[in-house]
């Protein structure tokens, strides 16, 4: 459950002030699948960073599963990120000196989970993502699609409630892009809230809910029902 | 995070920058090994001097001819005084100064010593029987000089172990007649063991009564007089009494120098200890320089791995953990460097001991500990700033930067 209300974020770029988020309000139910689309600079990445507690808005309200995130200090925000949020980035952000296995394992390693408990989980996730045989490969020995799958494995190992994906297929060819999309959608069907920021209309249209942004504000917000008709959300 | 995981993660990060890590390790290692080696030199010198003085004993004072007018300087070891020390002086001191129990006047020279067809050039020391007791030298075979007046010459000699071997081999020396220049002496004793004294190997020497030596070398003065202080007398008191008596004997001039080995020893000990500390300190500066290198390398590492820091933050690593990750790299490398430095230093010290067996080169424990603490401490101190920078980065900024 995500509730944001009246959120603003401004950047100062040289002499000009950029309004990256302009009075944005948005409610997301647990298990929803929504895409955020819009031209470059429309504020969609800023929205994602803010939802992922990577960035702080200037004002407004943000409740994440009932937690008022404004009152949290940086350590508590780190804890919430660890427990509630998974990130998938366009450029994967894998650590090159670690194997696929170790990259997936890393969040558990950082939070001090015993190796005995980590092993079956990592094994299970790699199996599920079709990477069972690639565990001991380094990122530069993997294809783009495989790398993104490793990144997805890493994002879900702590069993978050929300997965935030920033252009997850942006660096991939259409075939592996589709594989990654299907994996993300599969996770959503298992109950994970999925928010995808994308330029790709094909991918964006697959979501049940489409949010369009322009100049830091939400331009439109539509839900697709079973019949394919659109109607306003919220 | 578990310590094992931390070490593994850190090790992988260091291995990724092999050359840089190696150079850093060498820098820390050089610093530590220079502390190890330089303090070992100082400590070796200290122990060497201490050992030399230990041969003299605490209850002995030494009187040398001549006087240094300036205070605080080294006493003249080879004095050329206007008025020499004489056997008469020694005799008077022995008889009249309370607290002086034994005197050993000394004359020294070189001469060819021969037995049958074998001849050796050796050190000749003219002295009395008291010399051996004062220097803790044992007579292995035969006996000491017989009781006789200080100014009495007799054709008897005591020889060192090495000289005995060279002249007599395994045959018996005691009772044989040997020749020194134009004089013949009967060997009455052979010293046990070897004895190094201030670079002089006394096991190669021949000892004859002091009056005989004066005749052999045709001299009147003495090199020095060793005086033994009685058990219940203070060394300093006896020293000043000897000085007063000598002033009387030499018509009101104090033209001798009386030194107590104990006082000299503690002076030497102080001087060399301070020197060792100073030299160790200079070596310590190189560790500080290594520390600055650690800071640079960590700074570079933080800059290069900004995206990784962003990722760590995104997956929920708190600031303290990010800081710990970067600090561990600096600490791990400095521990490795310090250990390498200690091993390298110990090898050098060992080599030094093989080359100069007389000097007991040893790194003092405090230096070893200090270099370790300094190496790890400076690494921690200097890595703190860049590590803190990493810890304080805003996740969104860090992720965005490539």
Mean pLDDT of chain A: 91
β-strand percent of chain A reads 25-35%
What spatial order of strands do you see in the largest sheet of chain A? 6-7-8-3-9-10-11
Helix-strand topology string of chain A = EEEHEEHEHHHEHEHEEE
SS strand fraction of chain B: 15-25%
Tally of DSSP β-strands of chain A? 11
Helix/strand class of chain B = alpha+beta
Just give the CATH class of chain A. Answer: Alpha Beta
Question: Mind explaining what this structure looks like?
Answer:
The complex is a heterodimer of chains A (234) and B (402). Chain A has helices at 44-51, 74-84, 100-110, 115-128, 144-156, 174-189, 201-206, and strands at residues 2-13, 16-28, 33-37, 59-64, 67-68, 85-88, 162-166, 193-197, 209-214, 217-224, 230-232. In chain A, strand 10 (217-224) and strand 11 form a beta hairpin. Chain A has a single domain (2-228), classed as Rossmann fold, CATH 3.40.50. In chain A, the strands form two sheets. Chain A has a seven-stranded mixed sheet, sandwiched between helices. Chain A has a four-stranded antiparallel sheet with strand order 2-1-4-5, with helices on one face. Chain A has 234 residues and is α/β, with parallel strands linked by helices. The mean pLDDT of chain A is 91. Helix content of chain A is 34%, strand content 29%. Chain B has 402 residues and is an alpha+beta fold. Chain B has two domains: 3-52 and 266-400, no CATH class; 83-254, no CATH class. In chain B, 55% of the residues lie in helices and 18% in strands. Chain B has helices at residues 3-16, 18-54, 87-96, 130-134, 161-168, 210-217, 235-249, 261-304, 306-314, 319-355, 365-392, 395-400; strands spanning 60-65, 100-115, 118-127, 139-142, 156-159, 177-180, 183-191, 196-197, 200-201, 206-209, 224-229, 256-259. Chains A and B meet through helix 2 and helix 3 of A and helix 1, helix 9, helix 10 and helix 12 of B.
